Amino acid sequence: MEIESALYEADLAQTLANRERLSANPNLMHWYGELYKEMFRQEADIATKTVLEIGSGTSPLKRFLPNVITSDVLKLDYLDIVFDCHEIGMLPDIADHSVDVITMTNVLHHLKDPLMFLRGATRKLAKGGRLYATEPYLSWLSYPMYKLLHHEPVDLNIRRPVLDTVQGPLSTSNQAMPHMIFFQRPDWLAELTDCYSLDKTRISYFTSLSYMATGGISKKFPVPGWAYKPYFELDRAMGRTLPKVFASFFTARLTSRDQV
């Protein structure tokens, strides 16, 4: 995947700045910590498994799960591997069928070809290995916020789940792609039938406005932790109970077919 050098450098600098902001925002760190707990609830002994994270640039997963192998297309000195995840099937750094879990948070909608990546990822997953992707969910509440208040585009009119051009890892995206793959275009997901046991696919919903209440990466709202944490629990319950109305994020769990 070719990336324009000027935008690559800008995205690299932005990622480093975002990482500092995330570390300085305890409410946002709490949000991520709870996401990871929920995401890996069904993974027994996750701390002993081989876990590969895609798009680790800003993600704080390493702080919660020290055994994770971090990776990104950006050349960041704190990562374990730097590579274009579209080429994961040919990655020499990790043996084929040796990874128990692949995880990614808000990454799939930045990929030029998400289905190409998902197909290639099964080459690294062990028998029955699982891939977790957390992405924006377009509910009645979240859709207008993502569409009108967020800088990343939301295009539901695409004919294929691909980005026409890629200017930079962060600079280019379509927040609607993962939602369409998992909720609106079953024919797209069906293209992965030979790679994943789609009958084992599981979807969970995560929070309504509590991410926004942290200020996200760009801001830090002066909400004290003692007030934010109980609000988070209420907000999470709203997202789980009435996802089509309130949820802002979802996690898709895909299970790799047994490899020969």
From TrEMBL:
CDD domains: AdoMet_MTases. InterPro entries: SAM-dependent_MTases_sf. It comes from Rhizobium brockwellii. Keywords: Methyltransferase, Transferase. SUPFAM superfamilies: S-adenosyl-L-methionine-dependent methyltransferases. One of its GO terms (molecular function) is methyltransferase activity. The keyword Metal-binding does not apply. This is Methyltransferase domain-containing protein. One of its GO terms (biological process) is methylation.
